[in-house]
Amino acid sequence: MLLLLAGAALMAPWLAPSDPYDLAQVELRDSLRPPWWLADSLPGHPLGTDVQGRDLLSLMLYGARVSLAIGFGAVLLQLLLGVTLGLLAGYRGGRLDALLMRWADVQLAFSTLMMAIVISAVVKAAFGGAFYGHYGIWLLILIIGLSEWPLYARTVRASVMAEKRKEYIEAARVLGFSAPRVVLRHLLPNTLPALLVISGAQIGQAIMAEAALSFLGLGMPETQPSLGSLIKSGFDYLQSGAWWITLLPGAYLVLTVLAVNLLGDAWRERLDTRHAPVSPTAKGG
Questions:
Q1: Is residue 268 in a domain?
Q2: Count of structural domains within the chain
Q3: CB atoms within 10 A of CB 224
Q4: What is the pTM of this model?
């Protein structure tokens, strides 16, 4: 499911009936046309059009590209920050550990959405809406990434604290291995299974966070549509009967997040099975 949805989004320039960014292909007289199975639909717009006359299928495919880019980019930033700070806190310990973990505790006291709203509002007030619209994707990756790194940091720290007292780590130190080599070659690999499972859920959460921010008017502008901004743009016309502008992008968003979460669950089950003890019957004994 994820390969199908993400593949369709990545191939949007070839699969989309039109380019929603090309104003020459937009006709205002074709606005609010329903999908193909309803009356008054247009042949060239299988899922209907929005209030500006843009093809909704094309908007969904291009918008899914933006949402997926923000989701994966934000999780990558969370990984870089969380893993780096978690390794430092767990291996060094002492005051550095206390400082980093108290910082993480303070940030965890606020919800992700609240942190993202505050940061995006400050950026908009400081640099203006035009700046935010031009660099919207990168700013949302930064905002969502900075809001969720403590989860990775605490997970990595706990794993490092448990592993660094074991004999093989002490043996590596006695042999004169440098601290970066011990951390990267011995401690970091032990945290990868947990990070893989967390990342599956975090990608879906990052996509939903972008959709929530766009719905509140703090995400992607309508000129660069994401799935969240499409849902917002059609919400005002939901009561007037143009339900497809909101519900169809919403269904695409739900299926994408569901596929990511199912993939994360599959990773967790596979890792649990791999580390589970094998019975004599399973070995053929």
A1: yes
A2: 1
A3: 17
A4: 0.84
